Structures
1.
Amino acid sequence: MSDFKLVFLGASTVGKTTLFQRYTKGFISQTQTSIGASFGVRKLTMPDGNECTLGFWDTAGMERFKAISRNYYRGADATLIMWDVTEPASFNTAVEWCEEVHNNHPEILICIVGNKIDCLTGTEPTKPNERKLVAATKGMLFRVSAFTGDGIDDMFSQIAHQLIENKDKVAEAPAAPTVDVKAQKEGGGCGC
Ligand SMILES: Nc1nc2c(ncn2[C@@H]2O[C@H](COP(=O)(O)OP(=O)(O)OP(=O)(O)O)[C@@H](O)[C@H]2O)c(=O)[nH]1
Ligand SMILES: [Mg+2]
């Protein structure tokens, strides 16, 4: 069984805690602005019967907590960078998080999650260009509703599938050659 650590990031009120609650607890309740971080777990059975455990950190989106939230994504397998599809400004924050994680930790899988699709009317004046994030996210761009549950199960299946594939690739990579420092020293000289 594989264990993965995922971290929610994104501006305040985009719906991180709501999605976190729905997926790890199975219900949603009235949320308040997060001030710290919460942890939750969900087990997932893949179509091939394999199981994996997804451990989630829900972080606080307010600007003043950014430095704290930053501590949580270090060492994560994936970040779920959320934005609110009705709030273009929250997309800019998502782009900033995406650039930061991608530049500092290219090994972390970045997923961009547009939330609140239940609120879309089709008459929104601006439509953020998610496609510009395709390369940094390896195509992990999603649109969901934490309220209705739309798109959520499918999203986490795709993310888990990608994480397992990444892990298998690392496991298959040839091991780096080992150097016997002691033997070289005993042999004298510089070993060349
Ligand atoms: N319509 C709609 N409202 C949502 C959805 N997800 C969250 N909300 C509402 O958006 C508001 C903010 O949600 P939170 O989950 O607290 O947002 P957050 O990202 O955790 O905010 P911070 O903790 O401040 O970072 C709440 O009133 C939620 O009920 C959704 O999918 N659709
Ligand atoms: Mg919250």
2.
Amino acid sequence: MAFNPLTEKGTPLEKQIRNWKQLVMAPYPKQLVDAYTRCRIILMNGIENEAAIFSHQFARQSDNKELLATLAQIRRAEHQQQITVNYLNPADATILETTIAYEQVAVDLTSYLARTEPDKYVKETFDFGLLEDFDHLYRYSQMLDLIEGKDPTEITQNKTDIFPGRPTQDHHNDPILRLREHYQKNKAHPISKVNILTLTAAEQQTWMFYKDHGWEYGSPELRQLYAEISNVEEEHVTQYESLMDPNETLLEKWLLHEYTECANYYTCYSTESDNRLKLLWETFLNYELEHLRIAGEMLKKYEGIEPEQIVGKELPTPGKFEENKEYVTQVLNNTVDRRLTVGGFANKADLPADWPSYRYQDLVNAYGVPSETVVSLRIASTGEELIRANPQLVGRAAQFRIEALDANPAPNTAGAGLEETEPMVNRALGPKQAMESNEFADMFKK
Ligand SMILES: [Fe+2]
Ligand SMILES: [Fe+2]
Ligand SMILES: [Fe+2]
Ligand SMILES: [Fe+2]
């Protein structure tokens, strides 16, 4: 292995605290930034937030003065890193533009992790989540066009397809079904541990962003879309974190967090095209090497465990962003009909009539689902839904959007084209008014 973070020397902790001017760097210009540079910034912000949140949780469960002091010192550095990374985003990026970038992160990160994942069950779980975030990208893209008049490829730079995945209305599951079986800490490959922690951090970041910012739009349809998809991101956090072994001690988990930060910064550093940011990733990698060394010392001191026993000797490359269009198309073709069962998966055709997620969907989708409304609105507005895809997919959108639905489609499911789509007059009304207005809508047709 070319690079082993456990044997490298990092930046001493006292040199990691920076002044306010150093903390906030000039933001990237959104018209010029490479799509995958933006993805790395979004991912590392999520990784740093997870590091800080975990450290606080650890502190609340420890009565060891030395550990509390060490966690407090490192946590301050993590906080500063998070600010520096997140504040690279420019003020002129709108919430919807950032949202498109978040879903691009989810699609290309999950694809890369699934492709490199050694554990079959974990890979299957990644593939399952992949098709959901892929569909979110498509649903939000309809609204980026309608609300802000922008094309999503201005953000994705055509590196990621915009096309229906597993329909969002079918992402709403009984909470218990999202829980997966966890890995065994002494048997799992360290790459799996890092992959799972990386993806959990990214999904947690997405969940927080949607629930904290969706209300900032005036459009009721868009506010509802954020409400709906933030719920799915909460399901994703539940899904991925449940893969982790809860029998790992807090010290083991801390080591794994620092190792994951090292692996991600190292990958960012080795793949970055922007020289200014390459230097930043290298600087922060050096910070993390010291965090990792200290966490390793604490693990040895208090539990007698060598860090290598937890993380092994092969450095994973989780944060590698590259095109995955072919991979996504293949997963879409093979697994769009997959649904969750207790700890496993089943084909939608094989689900029992009392499948718990039907009950859940009947509740939340009762008066129509926002992720279908946005497609109907785009069709009503321009005559077609917004697709930016791979030539082998174009033309198959309605097939995935309608045929992939399970047995209880939402009452407002968008049709294949203009004629089959709900009239515009219903769009801003509540369910009762919308039902009453159907006659009114019929008058327009005559
Ligand atoms: Fe950090
Ligand atoms: Fe998503
Ligand atoms: Fe997600
Ligand atoms: Fe760290």
